[in-house]
Specification:
This protein is an alpha+beta fold and about 130 residues long. The protein has one domain: Ribosomal protein S19/S15 (30s Ribosomal Protein S19, Chain A, 2-Layer Sandwich), CATH 3.30.860.10. Helix content is about 25%, strand content about 15%.
């Protein structure tokens, strides 16, 4: 019982998070699902530019705010906080290892939950008589 319990390493497709973070964008793409791999390989310059911009902001202890909802989440973003625009404001997204390969926009919904109130006077047959 005196033994310390070792924290479980986080893995993504057989690689630890530290191993994935050391790889380049093109090397990481080989571990992504096919649709995300295709996007990253076609737009790897855009992905690299976004990651560099994020690193600069984090070094200066600033928040990363973006409109790039179609950006594929890469291992270098894991454990960070990114604010993604949902059309009206920026929503906070805390990136975890399970999100790798998904898009940023998936975690910042554009439509809110609608809770309907009760019907007003005259909206139903029973309340039609009350209107007059």
């Amino acid at each position: 019982m005196a033994e310390e319990v070792e924290l479980r390493q986080q893995h993504y497709r057989g690689k630890t998070l530290e191993e994935l973070q050391e790889l380049s964008v093109r090397e990481v793409a080989q571990f992504l699902p096919s649709r995300a791999r295709r996007t990253v390989l076609r737009n790897f310059e855009k992905v690299e530019k976004f990651l560099q911009r994020c690193e600069k902001k984090w070094q200066r202890n600033k928040d990363v705010r973006t409109h790039l909802r179609d950006m594929v989440i890469m291992p270098k973003l894991v454990g960070k906080k990114i604010y993604v625009h949902n059309g009206k404001n920026f929503q906070e997204v805390n990136v975890t290892i399970e999100m790798i390969g998904h898009r940023l926009g998936e975690f910042a919904p554009t439509r809110g939950k609608v809770s309907h109130g009760k019907a007003g006077v005259g909206a139903t047959r029973g309340t039609r008589a009350q209107k007059k």
